């Protein structure tokens, strides 16, 4: 019975981490066109999320935790020629966020699948608990 409760807690923590990942990806997509406000200023910078294993001493197992949410400084900003834009530099170029919608879609699909896998494990554990209770009643 204890193993089933541990599985429920592990899966719930995995769902929480993937939910945070989906939120970060959603913020990226929502800001895909957010430019700077002043000429030559930087636009919204893509956010990334990293995870870590955290030992839960009560359960005696590793749980996934959000390690940090950071900005992507590796991917360069895109440039678009638009001299009329308020954020255009002296050459007429506007910096656009370093967000690639295709990457964001792939990331959200992966997060969604991980979330659904954890949800499936919770449903299986629940089913086992209900069967155990039915057996004990008999």
What features would you describe in this structure?
The chain is an alpha+beta fold and 138 residues long. The protein has one domain. Helix content is 48%, strand content 21%. The protein contains 2 helices and 4 strands, in the order αββββα. Strands 1-2 form a two-stranded antiparallel ribbon. A two-stranded antiparallel ribbon has the order 3-4. A hairpin with a 4-residue loop joins strand 1 (47-56) and strand 2. The mean pLDDT is 94.
Order of helices and strands: HEEEEH
Helix content: 40-55%
Number of helices: 2
Quantity of strands, as a count: 4
Distance from N terminus to C terminus (CA atoms, Å) equals 18 Å
The helix/strand class is alpha+beta
Whole-number average pLDDT?
94
How much β-strand is present in the residues? Answer: 15-25%
Low-confidence stretches: none
Lateral strand order in the biggest sheet = 1-2
* Dominant shape: elongated
Number of domains: 1
Sheet with the most strands, sense and barrel status: 2 strands, antiparallel
Rg to the nearest angstrom? 22 Å
Give the structure's gist in a few sentences.
By secondary structure, the chain is α+β, with helices and mostly antiparallel strands.
